[in-house]
Amino acid sequence: MSIKKNLIVVDPFDNLGIRVNNILNYYKIFILNHKPIFYISEKITIKLIRNYLAMFLYHKINPFKFKYVLSLNKFTESDILLDLNGVHKKVNELDLSNFKGKSFFHLLDFFFNPLETNNFLLKNNITYLLGYNYHDKYSDFFMKYYPTFKNKVVSIPFGYHKRFQPLNTFYKRQKKAVILGSLNPINDPRCKKEEIKSYMEFFGKNNFMHPIRYKLAFDRENLLYQKVIDIRLPVYPQTKDFSYDAVEMMNRYQMFINDESVLNFPPARTYEGIAAGCVMVCTDNSIYKDLGFINKKNCIMFKKGDYEDLVKKIKYYQKNQKELAKIQKNSLKLAENFTHEKIADLLYEEIMKRA
């Protein structure tokens, strides 16, 4: 006879808010599919109730279909605790240490306050971490600040929102690669210095979080890239460009250039791009191979740091359109693995596998 396992989610709307409806939409799907118990860690106030009702209304979720608890004391070793809020501002206030079962905590952007965050994880007896990929395998920064969690990271890819679709036929697209995204300096003025102190010290030799974007953004007049790459990056000191729609832009081009950042994980663009029918051009990196990407089959890989090789590969496929069209077909097939519905299922499967 199997023991019933309760699944408890900590403060479901705490750090997610309306973002659940975008790149983290699988959280919402997960909640709707599995009806977890909601643990509310904060003191119940009129303001908190209003905030929750607003989130339920926004996401069209019936609040009466869920059970709510204000304490973790009554749960047993067979139960499962899930915190999807990342390195939130409440890290000093939240106490999960009295939970007896296995706990899963999603770090999200793990470079903020890593020393403080790691202490929080250890103090609260967190069993496993969820990450954008296997950070314990691919990030030196992660292993320096979270050494206890070696072999205890569960890889949960971003996946993509259903709005990312192939809306333009392949041969009507521009025969070029586009690069999009933000330009985030390591010493980001938008962040509190104490929050990113360790991050700045570790990556002090790098000017920006995304080396490929940095290289192309500050070298955009280079003749090497003309007629090959459209550089749609902000002009620094502007760090973001909201003047275009990402779905429309991905449907305008046959290829896009990806950048895994100094933290070495596949960004959301990995999945959004291929879902929109745009072939990914990326570094020859195992973080992509783990996801099923294969050079020349469903993506185009180039040597890291070799921008002549990058241009060479793009030019080859500009001339060999039938090969590129086949790669696009295969990448669209791969994209089916990363819908938010599939990621929600993966999250549940990976948790239950370890519970």
Defining key terms:
Rossmann fold, globular, alpha/beta, 355 residues, 13 helices
Textual characterization of the structure:
- This protein is an alpha/beta fold.
- The chain folds into 2 domains: 7-159 and 340-354, Rossmann fold, CATH 3.40.50; 170-336, Rossmann fold (3-Layer(aba) Sandwich), CATH 3.40.50.2000.
- The chain is 33% helix and 13% strand.
- It has 13 helices and 12 strands.
- It has helices spanning 25-34, 46-59, 114-123, 135-138, 140-145, 197-202, 211-217, 246-252, 269-275, 286-289, 307-319, 321-335, 340-354, and strands spanning 7-10, 37-39, 68-69, 80-83, 102-106, 128-131, 153-155, 174-179, 229-231, 253-257, 279-283, 300-302.
- It has a 7-stranded parallel sheet, with helices on one face. A 5-stranded parallel sheet has the order 9-8-10-11-12.
- α9 (269-275) crosses α12 (321-335).
- The longest helix has 15 residues, at 321-335.
- The model has no long low-confidence stretch (mean pLDDT 93).
- Mean pLDDT score: 93
> Unreliable stretches, pLDDT < 50, 5 or more residues?
none
Corresponding CATH architecture of the largest domain: 3-Layer(aba) Sandwich
- CATH top-level class of the largest domain: Alpha Beta
Cα distance spanning the termini: 16 Å
- The number of domains is 2
Shape, principal axes of CA atoms: globular
Order of strands, main sheet, comes to: 3-2-1-4-5-6-7
- Extended strand count: 12
Largest sheet: 7 strands, parallel
User: What is the C-alpha radius of gyration, as a whole number of Å?
Assistant: 21 Å
What is the element string, with H for helices and E for strands? EHEHEEEHEHHEEHHEHEHEHEHHH
CATH topology type of the largest domain: Rossmann fold
In what range is the share of β-strand residues?
5-15%
